[in-house]
Amino acid sequence: MAQILDEIIKKTKSDLEKRKVDYPEEWLGRSLSFNPFIPKDVKSALRATEENPYRIIAEVKKASPSKGIIREDFNPVEIAQAYEKGGADSLSILTEPHFFKGDKEYLGMVRRYVNLPLLRKDFIVDKYQVLEALAFGADYILLIAMALSRKELKELHDYARHLGLDVLVEVHNKTDLVKAIFAGADIIGINHRNLETFEMDMSLSEKLIPLIPNGKIIVAESGINDHETVVELSKIGADAFLVGEHFMRQDDITAAIKALKYGN
Ligand SMILES: O=C(O)c1ccccc1NCC(=O)[C@H](O)[C@H](O)COP(=O)(O)O
């Protein structure tokens, strides 16, 4: 496993130990029965169609391990509203607190004001975090194949589906892709960011997409900055495009979404 992933997961696990004591699992279950909600239709939002061929998952992220603080004036609700106005199809909400300065509370805050399917973007290694995702207002979760064994990935995937959450399984290479297919993933994300070097390999989609069985929803992730790249990735089979840093660095986020999605 890449060193940064190992570090993030160690920190995530030590935080989890504490959270499970402070907020036992039954509390999360109880908050769900007080505040039930119906998850949105994630697959319809992400699958490319003739009328809407470039599905955008716009990311709400303040910081990252590779770039440090990306956006100082960070208001997750205002950013989410600007994304929705610009035509985003879904939002990715970073909830990891130490390396990305995220917060799981952002899910509920954004959900109150924005009507798009929300991804809990975090380093999920435990069923407790899946239940949290549901309790805090996510419609789908990210599972990173490289961070999990084949058995763990399948168990977490099955658990999320059992709770009614969709799952985006992220892959970085062919080994990850085999694990994702074994887990029964129907939404597969190809992350161009090499987690050892933080370099982008935009040719990864070209290498992996032909190996993905028909019918899966394919998400191209990281390093996407312009409409031309979106068009090229779409031609080889990508349905949706996960974009973070490019949007977070813009003054006019709504205009940036329109430019990336529609090319104007
Ligand atoms: O972004 C990082 O530095 C990073 C480091 C370690 C693990 C994951 C990391 N990023 C998560 C993501 O994959 C991106 O937030 C997402 O794909 C959007 O990428 P970008 O458009 O390049 O911000």
Question: Notable features of this structure?
Answer:
single chain, 264 residues, alpha/beta, TIM Barrel, two-stranded antiparallel sheet, globular, binds ligand LARABZUK
Textual characterization of the structure:
With 264 residues, this protein is of the alpha/beta class. 44% of the residues lie in helices and 17% in strands. A hairpin with a 3-residue loop joins strand 2 (63-64) and strand 3 (68-69). The longest helix has 20 residues, at 3-22. It is globular, with a radius of gyration of 17 Å. Ligand LARABZUK binds next to strand 10 and helix 11. Its EC number is 4.1.1.48. InterPro entries: Aldolase_TIM (IPR013785), Indole-3-glycerol_P_synth (IPR045186), Indole-3-glycerol_P_synth_dom (IPR013798), Indole-3-GlycerolPSynthase_CS (IPR001468), RibuloseP-bd_barrel (IPR011060). It holds the Pfam family IGPS. Keywords: Amino-acid biosynthesis, Aromatic amino acid biosynthesis, Decarboxylase, Lyase, Tryptophan biosynthesis.
The CATH C-level class name: Alpha Beta
Looking at CATH, the homologous superfamily is Aldolase class I
Task: Report the structural category.
Answer: alpha/beta
Whole-Å distance between the termini? 40 Å
Number of helices: 12
Largest sheet: 8 strands, parallel, barrel
Cα gyration radius (Å): 17 Å
Q: How many strands in all?
A: 10
The name of the CATH topology is TIM Barrel
Small molecules held by this entry: the ligand O=C(O)c1ccccc1NCC(=O)[C@H](O)[C@H](O)COP(=O)(O)O
Average residue-wise pLDDT:
96
Give helix and strand order, one letter per element, not per position: HHHEEEHEHEHEHEHEHEHEHH
Share of residues in helices: 40-55%
> Main sheet: which strands, in order across?
1-4-5-6-7-8-9-10
Organism: Sulfurovum xiamenensis
EC number: 4.1.1.48
Pathway: Amino-acid biosynthesis; L-tryptophan biosynthesis; L-tryptophan from chorismate: step 4/5
InterPro entries: Aldolase_TIM, Indole-3-glycerol_P_synth, Indole-3-glycerol_P_synth_dom, Indole-3-GlycerolPSynthase_CS, RibuloseP-bd_barrel
